[in-house]
Amino acid sequence: MGSKQQRPISLGLQVCAALGAVCALAGSVCAQGISLDMGGATLKMEPESAQEELAVGRLVAGQILGAAKLLPNAELQRYVNLVGRRVADQSERKDAAWAFGVIDSSAINAFAGPGGKILITSALLQILESEDELAAVLAHEVAHVVRKHHYRVIRKQRMLEFGAQSVAIKEDSSGMSEKLSGMVAQVLARGLDQSAEFEADRDGMVYAARAGYDASALIRVMEKLSAVTAKDPAGELLLSTHPSAENRRITMAKQVNADLEKAATPSRSAARYRQFVK
Amino acid sequence: MKFFGNAFLTQALALTLLLGLPVSGMGQTVSVQTELRASADTAAKVVKSLEPKTPVKVLQRQGFWLEVEAQGAKGWLKGSTVDMGSGPKGLSGLDTGRSGKGNIVSTSAARGLSPKELVAAKPDFQQADQLQGLAVTPKASEEFAAKGGLQARKLALLSPPAAAQSAKGSSSKKGKKSDKDEDDDGE
After folding, report:
1. Following DSSP, what letter does each residue of A172-204 receive, concatenated?
2. Mutate to test the interface with B, among A246, A260, A273, A276 (most CBs of B within 10 A)
3. pLDDT digits (tens, 9 = 90+) for A71-104
4. Where are the domains of chain A?
5. Which of A15, A221, A251, B8 could make an S-S bridge to A11, C-beta 3.0–4.6 Å?
6. Chain A partners of B122 at a C-beta cutoff of 8 Å?
7. ipTM of the complex
8. Which has the closest alpha carbon to A93: B8, B47, B175, B187?
C-alpha cells in the first residue's frame, strides 16, 4: 500500500456511493477484496479474514457492553452458553469463537457480534418461556454470524468512511479505535437490511430444529414480540432495526417445509429454562 | 423493582403477556382463500372453505398451525394464512407470560439500549474479553444436550422465497437489499 491510501478519505460522496453500489451488488467481490481506481486514488479493500472478523466482533461487543453490562449471574451465563453452543454447533461455522452473554438491560433485544459474540438482554430473557424459545432467539443471532451480515456491513461502512487507510480493523491502531467504535455504533443503531433479518429468521429456525429444539419456537417468540410497540423504550431499537414481529411471523410461516413441520414440537428440555430463569 | 431502569413499560408488557389480550375481536382474519381442516395436517378433512378477510378467533397454536373458530366452525389453519391484525395483539394472550423479576436481577440499575444510548456509549473492551471467557466447549454443550434429551436432526437450510411470495408489506425503506448478497453469503 502506498501513500495513495491516505487520499480516499477525502473522496466525494459520489465516489463513496459508487463504491457502496459496487459492494452491494458484489458481495463475493467484497469477500475477496476489491480494488477500484478512482481518478488516481486506488481504493483497495483487503479480503475478509478470520482475524479481522474477530476484531470487528470485539468492537461490536465492546460497544454494546459499553451501554449495558454482562449480568453478574454465572449460572445463567453458563446456561445460555450451553444452549447457544448447542445451536451454533449445528451451523456451518462450528469452529467460530462462539460466546454468549446475557446483558443487563431493560431493552428487549439480542445482538450478533461478528466471529461469534452473541448478546441477549435480560428483558428479552424475561419474556421467553422455554429453552426452545431461547434457542430460537440465539439461533437467529448465530445465523447473522454465519452469514457475516454485520461483518460485511461494517467492512463496507469502514471503506466508505475511512477509505483504504484502515486496511485492517485493529483496535490498537492509533487514533482509529474511537472512530471505528463510533462507526460500529452507528451501524448497530441503523440495523441491517430487512432481507438479512428475514434470512436470519429462516436459517435460525433450521439451526434450532437441527439442535433438537421446536422448529416453531421462533414463531412463538414473534407472537410475544408483537405485543411490543416502537413507542415502548423497551422495543425502540429492536423495532427500528427489524421488520415488524407480525411480518416476520408470516414470512417465516410461509417458508416452512414438511421437514420443519415435523420438527415443530416442544423439546424434552423446553421446561429446563425455568430452572435457570425464574 | 431494581432490575428495570424503565420498569413501567416493561412491566406493562409483562402484564400484557400475563393477563393476555382477548384473542377475539382483535381484527384477526384469514389473509387468503384457505381450507379450515379437522386437524393440523394438510391431509386432514376439510371442515370449511374460508374466503379472504373472513374473521377468525384464534384458540391455540400447535407448531405452525392455529386452531380457530370461524363462521361457527372449529378447525385448523396454517399460521401463515392468518392476519393477526395491527397493534398489540396476537397469541401472546393464549399463554401466560411472566411478570416477576425472578432470578435475573442485577446488582445495579439496568441500562436501556436505545439507538441514542448505544451511540453515546463508551466501548467496554474489558467486558468484551469477559464475554469470551463465558464460552463453553462443544463437549460440555453435547453433554448438556444429552442430559436434556435433545436429539439432533438432519435438516437442509430453506431456500429464499421468491420475491412475490414474501409477506405483504415486507418491503420497506431498508428492504431493498441486493439478491446477490443473499446468494453470496453462504459459507
Report:
1. TSTTHHHHHHHHHHHHHHH---HHHHHHHHHHH
2. A246
3. 999 999 999 999 999 999 999 999 999 999 999 9
4. 34-275
5. A15
6. 66
7. 0.82
8. B187
